[in-house]
Write a structure and sequence with these properties.
The protein is an alpha+beta fold. It has 4 helices and 10 strands, in the order ββααβββββααβββ. Strands 1, 2, 3, 4, 5, 6, 7, 8, 9 and 10 form a 10-stranded antiparallel sheet that branches. A hairpin with a 3-residue loop joins strand 5 (about 75-80) and strand 6 (about 85-90).
């Protein structure tokens, strides 16, 4: 029987044990839940494909920094970028593949007061989680969460399904903020959602 939280099904490891290009659009409309009441609906994702993807951190193989990405599917990979921001990913595929999905934006659902306190520069609630660095700030995700298990819910985070299906026709586009393979149409988002980082 699938694990549940507040009546919602926690995504099982089998959900993540697939090609990241299948997982990324399937994650749309799922909910990222934190331990302190913060949660948001996933509205934008990007797939990264390991050894075949020059934009992936794992393109050149395993290092101390990206080791989590080569672990079991369903783990959270958190990395530091531009010397100031954290970003978080779900590890996908088989162990050793080094593929995953970057969570790019959430539609805030609960714990908004805590999110606002962590994102004081956000002028509107739709700016709280509209981008990968904003998302981690609002949800309180940092390097200490690298390697936590989203399936087991350790570290206080999990991804749940409340019955809302992914959009039938998600928007697909090239990826944002990468210098190589940016044209690969491996970014997906919920059409018309105001929390998406860029349309």
């Amino acid at each position: 029987m699938a694990a549940r939280i507040d009546g919602r099904k926690i995504l099982p490891r089998a959900f993540f044990r697939r090609d990241s290009r299948a997982v990324a659009p399937a994650l749309l409309n799922k909910i990222l839940v934190g331990a302190d009441g913060r949660s948001g609906r996933i509205v934008e994702t990007e797939a990264y494909c390991g050894a075949i993807d020059p934009a992936a951190h794992t393109y050149r193989g395993k290092t101390a920094r990206n080791a989590t990405m080569f672990g079991p599917p369903g783990k959270m990979y958190v990395y530091f970028t531009y010397g100031m921001h954290w970003c978080c990913n779900t590890v996908c595929g088989e162990e050793g593949e080094g593929i995953g999905v970057l969570l790019r934006a959430l539609a805030p659902l609960s714990g908004l007061e805590i999110m606002r306190a962590h994102r004081p520069k956000a002028r509107r609630d739709r700016e709280l989680c509209s981008g990968p660095a904003r998302l981690t700030q609002a949800m309180g995700i940092s390097g200490v969460h690298d390697g936590i298990d989203l399936v087991a819910g350790d570290g206080g985070f999990c991804i749940v399904d409340d019955g809302t299906p992914p959009p039938r026709n998600p928007v697909a586009s090239g990826r944002i903020g990468v210098s190589r393979a940016a044209e690969a149409p491996w970014r997906w988002y919920v059409p018309g959602d105001t929390n998406v980082s860029r349309r």
